[in-house]
Write a structure and sequence with these properties.
The structure holds two protein chains of two kinds.
Chain A lengths: L3 E4 L2 E4 L5 E7 L5 E7 L5 E8 L2 E5 L6 E7 L2 E6 L8 E11 L2 E6 L3 E5 L1
Parallel strand pairs in A: 2-11
Antiparallel strand pairs in A: 1-3, 3-8, 4-5, 4-9, 5-6, 7-8, 9-10, 9-11
Chain B lengths: L2 E5 L2 E5 L4 E8 L3 E9 L6 E6 L5 E4 L2 E5 L3 E6 L8 E9 L7 E2 L3 E6 L1
The chains are: A mainly beta, B mainly beta.
Chain lengths: ~110, ~110
């Protein structure tokens, strides 16, 4: 299936731990993103990569470090996790075609910090 | 500052009762306005992109329209399976590729 897939779907961890979320897309898109959805369902961009190059870093704490080994993968590593990091994290990819910009989102990773 | 506001926050409809969701936006220049549907525990699913005032797009019971200040998502004769959160987002010109989202409208359709 063509899609944006991210793992794990659920992540429960203690404060102070370091964790990673992985994302892969097989759509051939050039641009990938990480978005954060808070408890009020508000989606906000964190990072954007175009062909492995960082394009957007939306004033995210430097405990969050994205890594793009190739244009099909964008991982998110979080150091020293805090309670306020609890949220759903969505990976997405996009490509401009003749219909316009097409964004595809993954199914999300629910991170709970206890 | 670029901003998106959606109303109402929540909407309860009887099956077959048509209604509209509103998305008001403020951007320096609009590159595109997007509508997404999000079901619980899932990622946003793309519905429409609108690019210029006056543009309309339809898909089954949904129709999206766009003016210079707002967009409407009209739902005609909704069914219970249309229950979801509907998200509006804008992409501003010169703003790379990021989407600025509203907080969504949670729609419940009862049989």
């Amino acid at each position: 299936d063509t899609a944006v897939s991210q793992t794990p779907k659920y992540l429960v961890t203690q404060m102070g731990n370091d964790k990673s979320i992985k994302c892969e897309q097989n759509l051939g898109h050039d641009t990938m993103y990480w978005y954060k959805q808070d408890s009020k369902k508000f989606l906000k961009i964190m990072f954007s990569y175009n062909n492995k190059e960082l394009i957007i870093n939306e004033t995210v704490p430097n405990r969050f470090s994205p890594k793009s080994p190739d244009k099909a993968h964008l991982n998110l590593h979080i150091n020293s996790l805090e309670l306020g990091d609890s949220a759903v994290y969505f990976c997405a990819s996009s490509q401009f075609d003749r219909r316009g910009y097409g964004y595809t989102f993954g199914s999300g990773t629910r991170l709970t910090v206890v | 500052e670029d901003q998106v506001t959606q109303s109402p926050e929540a909407l309860r409809l009887q099956e077959g009762e048509s209604s509209s969701l509103n998305c008001s936006y403020t951007v320096s220049g609009l590159r595109g306005l997007f509508w997404y549907r999000q079901d619980p525990g899932k990622g946003p699913e793309f519905l429409f992109t609108l690019y210029s005032a006056g543009e309309e797009k339809e898909k089954e019971r949904l129709k999206a329209t766009l003016t210079k200040k707002e967009s409407f998502l009209h739902i005609t004769a909704p069914k219970p399976e249309d229950s979801a959160t509907y998200l509006c987002a804008v992409q501003a010109t010169g703003n790379t590729d990021k989407l600025i989202f509203g907080t969504g409208t949670r729609l419940q359709v009862f049989p």
